[in-house]
Design goal:
Blueprint lengths: L10 E6 L2 E6 L10 H14 L7 E6 L10 H8 L10 H18 L3 E6 L2 E3 L1 H7 L3 E5 L3 E3 L13 H8 L1 H10 L2 E2 L1 H7 L4 E3 L2 H17 L2 H13 L5 H17 L1 H11 L15
Parallel strand pairs: 2-3, 3-4, 4-6, 5-7, 6-9
Antiparallel strand pairs: 1-2, 7-8
Helix pairs in contact: 1-3, 5-6, 9-10
C-alpha cells in the first residue's frame, strides 16, 4: 500500500501503484515555481524515499504547460525584505531552496519521468534535465531566459551541463535561446518527442510498462551507481559495484528474476498494482 503522502496545495497527486502521478498545479501562472511548490516537491520526494510501493514518479503540468520558471511574486517578496549578506540574503535563500529541491529530485531512488508540454523554461527546464526519462510534445517551448532578465540560471546551469554538455549549454544559456521539442530531442534534453497528444500518452504508458519489468531495488542501486561515475576513482567504484552485484545476485530480487526467466513468466514485481487497475 502507498504510504500517506504530504498534503499539497500546488501539486495534484494521484497514486496508481507502482506509479505516482505528480501534476504541477498552478495553471493560472503556467505552473511557475513558487517557494511553496519547491517546499512541497521537496517534502514529497523526502516521503517517497520511505515508500517502497512507489517505483516511478511522473511529473507533468496542468493547463497545457509544464513550468514557466520561477514565480515573479516570490522574487518581489524577497526584494521587499531587508537585504542580508551571504546566506542571510533573501535572494540567496530563495534561489538555494530551488537548488536543494532539484538536487533531491536528481538523486531520488525513484524513476522520474517528465512529460513536457507548453512552457518548459527556467526552473521547468531544470526539472526536465534531472528526469530519468523526458517525453515532450513537439510544440513544447524550451528556454533558459534568465540572462535576458538580467539574472543567471544559478541552480539550473550545472544540471543542464550534465545533461547536454558544456558546448550546447553555453549556446542555450548565454543567448537565451528558445527551441521546440524536436530541437530538445536533438540536443539530448529530452529522449522522445511526440507530434500529438495520443502519441504522447502512448509513449508514457510504454515507459511505465517498461518500469514495471525492472526490479525496484536493482533499479534504485543502478541509478545511484550511475550518479557516482565521474565523481570517484574508477577502480574503487568498480570494486564497490562488484560487491553490489554479488549482493544483488543473492538477493530475493535476484532469485526471483532468475526463476522468472527460467520459467518464462513475468517476475513478481512486474504485476504489482495490477489489482488496483
Amino acid at each position: 500500500m502507498t504510504k500517506a503522502l504530504p498534503q499539497c496545495e500546488t501539486l495534484a497527486l494521484e497514486a496508481r501503484t507502482p506509479v505516482l502521478y505528480v501534476t504541477l498545479n498552478r495553471p493560472e501562472s503556467r505552473n511557475a515555481m513558487s517557494l511553496q511548490m519547491v517546499a512541497e516537491l521537496s517534502a514529497l520526494f523526502t516521503a517517497l524515499e520511505e515508500d517502497e510501493s512507489i517505483r516511478a514518479v511522473v511529473l507533468r503540468g496542468a493547463g497545457g504547460h509544464f513550468c514557466a520558471g520561477g514565480d515573479i511574486k516570490d522574487m518581489a517578496g524577497a526584494r521587499g525584505k531587508p537585504a542580508g549578506t551571504g546566506k542571510d540574503d533573501p535572494f540567496y535563500q530563495l534561489n538555494r531552496a530551488f537548488g536543494h529541491m532539484i538536487e533531491q529530485l536528481n538523486r531520488s531512488s525513484k524513476v522520474v519521468i517528465a512529460v513536457l508540454e507548453g512552457a518548459v523554461m527556467g526552473g521547468g527546464f531544470g526539472l526536465a534535465c534531472v528526469s530519468d526519462l523526458a517525453i515532450a510534445r513537439d510544440n513544447a517551448r524550451f528556454a533558459l531566459p534568465e540572462t535576458g532578465l538580467g539574472v543567471i540560471p544559478a541552480q539550473i546551469a550545472p544540471f543542464v551541463v550534465e545533461r547536454i554538455g558544456l558546448t550546447q549549454a553555453r549556446r542555450i544559456a548565454l543567448f537565451g535561446m528558445k527551441f521546440d521539442g524536436h530541437e530538445a530531442a536533438r540536443l539530448g534534453v529530452v529522449h522522445q518527442v511526440c507530434d500529438d497528444e495520443a502519441s504522447l500518452e502512448a509513449a508514457l504508458e510504454a515507459a511505465i510498462a517498461q518500469v514495471r519489468l525492472c526490479a525496484p531495488h536493482a533499479t534504485a542501486v543502478t541509478k545511484t551507481l550511475l550518479h557516482r561515475v565521474g565523481h570517484e576513482p574508477m577502480g574503487s567504484l568498480l570494486d564497490d559495484a562488484a560487491a553490489q552485484f554479488a549482493n544483488a545476485i543473492r538477493s530475493k530480487e535476484g532469485a526471483e528474476g532468475t526463476m522468472a526467466f527460467m520459467q518464462k513468466r513475468p517476475p513478481a514485481w512486474a504485476t504489482v498494482g495490477d489489482a488496483q487497475e
